[in-house]
Amino acid sequence: KEKGQKGTKITLKIAKNSIRISFDGGRRLDLSKMGITTFPKCILKLADVDELDLSRNMLKKIPSSIQKFQKLRWLDLHSNQLEELPGAIGTLQNLFYLNVCNNKLTTKNLPEELNLLKNLHILNLGLNCLDSIPTSLGALKELKEIGLFDNALTTIPNSVKKLPNLKKLNAERNPFPDSTKQEEHADSVKRVETLYLVQEKDLCSSCLKACQDKRDKLNELKHMTPSPSKKLSFPLLLTPNSSAKDNQEEWRLR
Length: 254
Fold this sequence. Notes:
The protein has four helices and eight strands. By secondary structure, the chain is low in regular secondary structure. The protein has a domain at 19-114: Leucine-rich repeat, LRR (right-handed beta-alpha superhelix) (Alpha-Beta Horseshoe). The longest helix is centred in the C-terminal third of the chain and has 18 residues, at 205-222. The model is unreliable at 180-198 and 241-254 (pLDDT under 50). Residues 66-200 form the Disease resistance R13L4/SHOC-2-like LRR domain. InterPro entries: Leu-rich_rpt, Leu-rich_rpt_typical-subtyp, LRR_dom_sf, LRR_domain-containing, LRR_R13L4/SHOC2-like. This is LRC18 protein.
């Protein structure tokens, strides 16, 4: 056996006693914060649950047998030690919510099969080791919220940014290039600095003075140092670190 920390052993009896009824009437298997180091095989006998919470444990791997949870709508794996996800996760066609925040996932170990989760509405990939986002995630047309914060991203593909139903995207604390340069590079529209609709000689003196005053004010504003923009708030994509609240209900879509 590999040397390492010995985790809590979950028996079928413990698992059955950990089933709760969620706010919408579904059956939720809550095994969070139990010191689990290995995915408990016994819970495969409870694969008819609607929600599975294995967050805040010490899991390093999720087996391919996760595909047995075909009814699963809500899967929370945040704050573990996961370095990869199995491709079998793409078979969970009813999955609505997937949280793998605060793990050790790399871009290389994100399975391509994630793009098969056609009913996914909320995806949290924050606090991992991602240096890029697969463009294939643009296939998740139902996605409404995505967390990408605290990674090593330098860009976000347009296929993700332009998802038709996307309402919230939290990508804070990534090493993106200078935003001004990005905007200049992305802006292919040629702009005209001054557009004359009438000639100066056709204006009366009072109108000409009014126009000149307006132009002077615009020039002053143009040369002013812009104030830093206010940071956006993403209340549903919080960072689940040690300061996170124990009540995980606020992570869920209301």
